[in-house]
Amino acid sequence: MSPRPLVVDAQVHVWKGSTPDRPWPADAIEPQRVVPLEVPELRRELDAAGVQAALLLGPTWEGGRNDYVLEHAAADPARWGALCRFPTSDPAEVERLAHWRDVVGMRGIRLSLNRGDVAGDLERATRSGFFTAAERYGVPLSIYAPGRYDLYAELAQRHPALSITVDHVAVETVVPSLVDAVRPLRALARFPGVAVKASALPCFVAEEHPFPSLAPAVYELVDAFGAQRVFFGSDLSRLPVPYARLVDAFVEHLPRLDAPERELVLGRALTTWLDWPEPVAAREMEILR
């Protein structure tokens, strides 16, 4: 029997509760769950589901904090990577992107463009030179802008060397057809710097495990982008089903993908895209034992 493939989750929000020493912003939105999802709980979930590593992201309700995710990514880079928030409108901060690789555990920057003054945020980030600097210094971006295919295309055209991941297949709510919902992404596949997170998919369907429309949607993405630009992810804190069932749907219920394609989608493509070799090395050592 061949060993279970490396599985890396492309996005999980982790956070700590608001306290006087570590308060949330006064205008924080409601969290996805009352009890914070902290790293010890996440580790137990990953262990139970056979997932080797995950990319950690602080949620918007905690503000622009990166301390918690960076702490764990630095301590155990074979298990955790950090996807960081960034003050994109501040030219002084943008200059520091030249040294972003010195931030231990950091694997990229996340932009949440699904609420508020999105047009203003983009204008300020452009004016500050953020996108130009991210392209110049090789900073991978994960962008959540549901339905904004024009935005992704414009960034890819203006910055052809920029690495952009479309988060959560650019979907936000339950859709009538998941395959139809991901099909507009095909137009972005012509840009080699654009990849897609096949993440949070059970949030967008009214189905039980193994989620019948999940497989056709993944096939649609792999057909367009190639398996090297499609990444499994959960967005666990808002997942409406047990974590292990989502993992099982990807590991055991994508029969049209051959073994190399499945391994890429499950984790190897993400680690290559983000230049994150530690999970692969740790998995290979584990197999050799």
UniProtKB/TrEMBL annotation:
Amidohydrolase-related domain boundaries: 8-267
Lineage top rank: taxon: Bacteria
Gene3D superfamilies, A to Z: Metal-dependent hydrolases
Pfam families reported in the protein's UniProt record: Amidohydro_2
Protein family according to the UniProt entry: Belongs to the metallo-dependent hydrolases superfamily.
PANTHER family tied to this protein: AMIDOHYDROLASE (PTHR43569), AMIDOHYDROLASE-RELATED DOMAIN-CONTAINING PROTEIN (PTHR43569:SF2)
Identification of the protein by name: Amidohydrolase family protein
Upper lineage: Bacteria, Bacillati, Actinomycetota, Actinomycetes, Propionibacteriales
